[in-house]
Amino acid sequence: MTGKDGYDLVVVSNRLPVDFTVDDEGHVDWKRSPGGLVTALEPVMQKSDGAWVGWSGAPDLEVDPFDADDMRLVPVTLSATEIERYYEGFSNDTLWPLYHDVIAPPAFHRQWWDAYRRVNQRFADAAAAQAEQGATVWVHDYQLQLVPRMLREQRPDLKIGFFNHIPFPPLELFQQLPWRRQVIDGLLGADLIGFQRAGDASNFIRAVRRLTGYTTRGPIVTVPGDEDRPSRNVRAAAFPISIDSRTFDELARTPEVQARSREIRADLGDPECMMLGVDRLDYTKGIRHRIKAYGEILQDGRIDVEHVTLVQVASPSRENVGAYQELREQVEGLVGRINGEYAEIGHAAIHYLHHSYPPEEMAALYLAADVMLVTSLRDGMNLVAKEYIAARSDDRGVLVLSEFTGAADELAGGALLVNPHDIDGMKDIIVAAANMDVREQRKRMRRLRRRVLADDVSKWSESFLGVLQAMPSRDTPRTHAPSRPTDEAPVEGEGA
Ligand code: G6P
Questions:
Q1: Residues spanned by CATH 3.40.50.2000 within the chain?
Q2: Ligand 1 contacts CB of residue 315 (under 6 A)
Q3: How far, in Å, CA of 221 to CA of 226, rounded?
Q4: According to the UniProt record, where is the region Disordered (predicted)?
């Protein structure tokens, strides 16, 4: 930043794109964390003088803003109690289950809500302090839904975008939230609200109509003004996110990754068919359903452990939240039972790995896997499905994909779609995937790769920021006639 008071582009997300470590003497160090969002935004940030506001990931860690790779990183401090109430509580034990079809029951606690409001205000204040006059601020995800309005109240000069990385629930579920109106008002502080799927955008528009009575026309909501402010138009549309497909494709072509993938297969005893599941250990991912189906296929004798094996990577996640602890026990109990029942010496039925791995190891696992199982009960997008495809430059492998992922909207043409609640249906599809002939695999994988390599994450961020920056920068004039109330759904697939 030179000769200016602030940054032209400010990204706000719960976590900063770096991991911090504190040594015994209290010295703080950091290293880049390889997330999709940072890959997508780094080039835009570097071009446009950008700052990133987010939490360090540790309790009570006070770190001054610093520069990393041409970006200004601005850490927000959270106390241990705030982590418990805002992050583990309201974000991940209220909103997360509520927005994922109440697969687990959401807990509603007023103290958690108070902490959520306070922490959102802190993020908004930090973003307001970084942004240049007329700058663009892009706020991310369900942890920060109140930030757009809090920001607009302080800084009406800003262009404000919000992107929801997870599903937006149907009104019938959303209205359980005691603070539903405040959340809607918070989001409507933005100029543009992005969702993964057109269906999420229509759920949001319907919630706005029913809970606020504001006028909507297709994807546009008109937020009425008051004595001080004119009315404004807010747009809600779908911008399906992707991965850095080219880089992932190149990574999977490197001799090291190729060799590692052969080594993985050899270590597994060179099975005829290796199946793979890769998930955060989260109840939305349908891991139990998948393992149950797999166990029944073994029981039915349709596959056997001498020829087929399942590798399940379940990376640790949100381990202080009760529902995640219960899930871990259930999954590990199930894996233990199935291995106890069906494994033979030298042939595990399931290789269960409760770890996270670097991208090189992930690429090698994807390349080694004949069948990739993505069986989420509800999932905003599911980037694992896209990574599997990007890794398969050999045009081999079969993707079994849940209908309940955002990715299914785009990948239905080449994946085998499943309903993970229908265990018999899923068993048949898993067996069909294991037996699919190479010509059919190639035909499908080519189709999938065309899609994933074309729609990469930089296209996603350019498309969102392009629409946001093209929106009129001033509030609509007060004389603007309110548009006619309508029941229309927003325009499908708008934006990307
Ligand atoms: C999902 C959410 C992200 C979140 C990530 C990891 O993808 O959409 O906002 O960062 O899960 O979860 P965590 O709670 O570890 O940040």
A1: 7-241+462-470, 245-454
A2: no
A3: 16
A4: 471-496
Residue to mutate, 14, 139, 162, ligand 1, most ligand atoms under 8 Å from C-beta = 14
CATH tag for 245-454 (out of 2.40.160.10, 3.30.160.60, 3.40.50.2000, 3.40.50.280)? 3.40.50.2000
The CATH number of the structural domain formed by 7-241+462-470 is 3.40.50.2000
Residue nearest to atom 14 of ligand 1 (CA): 318
Total residue length of the chain: 496
Residue 484 in this model has a pLDDT that exceeds 70: no
Q: What percent of the chain has pLDDT over 90?
A: 86
pLDDT tens-place string over residues 296-331: 999 999 999 999 999 999 999 999 999 999 999 999
Q: What is the pLDDT of residues 55-64, one digit of tens each?
A: 999 999 999 9
| Nearest ligand 1 atom to alpha carbon 141 | 9
Q: How far is CA 143 from CA 13, 54, 123, 147, in A?
A: 8, 11, 10, 9
**Residue 86: what pLDDT?**
98
* 7: Cβ contacts below 8 Å, ≥ 6 apart: 1, 49, 50, 51, 72, 130, 131, 132, 135
Cβ–ligand 1 distance for 392 under 6 Å, the answer no
Contact of 106 with 176, CB cutoff 8 Å = yes
Cα–Cα distance for residue pair 474/460, rounded to 1 Å: 25
Q: Is 318 a pocket residue for ligand 1 (Cβ < 6 Å)?
A: yes
3-state SS, residue 353 = strand
Tokens of 450: 């065309």
Answer yes or no: is the C-beta of 285 below 6 A from any ligand 1 atom: no
